[in-house]
Specification:
Number of strands: 2
Pfam families: DUF1360 (PF07098)
Helix content: 55-70%
Protein name: DUF1360 domain-containing protein
Distance between the termini: 70 Å
Organism: Rugosimonospora acidiphila
Order of helices and strands: HHHHEEHHH
Strand content: 5-15%
Strand order of the largest sheet: 1-2
Structural class: mainly alpha
Largest sheet: 2 strands, antiparallel
Length: 175
């Protein structure tokens, strides 16, 4: 007799150990693969092609923009309403960021990890930017430029605050 796929996955999960939501991770991977496959099919059907060798400037621009958008979505206090249904606030993390933990179980736990982890979210954000370079390159570069400027501003704000603190000149609200 053949066991169902669900029973096989549960057996694998038990053998793996720990409390990792493997089914949720598998669902997330399946959704991601479906999105990439769909984007690839649409690109092929419309004759769109990515560059055979991406420009170094685009790689750097997309890297910095991915960093900023991933942190904005996963950690910023202002975007916490987007995560509140599946995460629990743990405390402030400094520089307008928050620490949150997943409160859902199973697939919901995996989704909560994805949207509250800038490293996890970075893969999805980068994929979106890469698709943007194929379908809407000018708009994608403009949006990525804006996010890169904000990331640069963030680093300058932190450097400014650090310089003030080093000289004993820190005031209220970091200003």
């Amino acid at each position: 007799m053949f066991r169902s796929l669900r029973q096989r996955l549960e057996g694998i999960g038990e053998g793996y150990g720990g409390s990792q939501p493997l089914r949720g991770y598998l669902t997330t991977l399946t959704v991601y693969a479906s999105v990439v496959s769909g984007l690839t099919a649409v690109a092929a059907a419309t004759g769109r092609r990515g560059p055979s060798r991406p420009a170094a400037g685009d790689v750097i621009l997309i890297a910095v923009a991915t960093h900023k958008l991933s942190r904005l979505l996963a950690k910023e206090a202002v975007t916490s309403p987007l995560r509140a249904a599946v995460t629990r606030f743990e405390g402030a993390a400094g520089s307008s960021e928050v620490n949150e933990v997943p409160r859902a179980t199973g697939s919901g736990h995996a989704a909560a990890e994805l949207i509250s982890c800038p490293f996890c979210l970075g893969v999805w954000v980068s994929t979106g930017f890469c698709a943007g370079l194929v379908f809407l390159p000018r708009l994608t570069r403009l949006v990525a430029t804006g996010l890169t400027a904000v990331a640069g501003s963030d680093f300058l704000q932190l450097a400014y605050d650090a310089a003030k603190a080093a000289t004993g000149n820190a005031g209220r609200h970091g200003g």
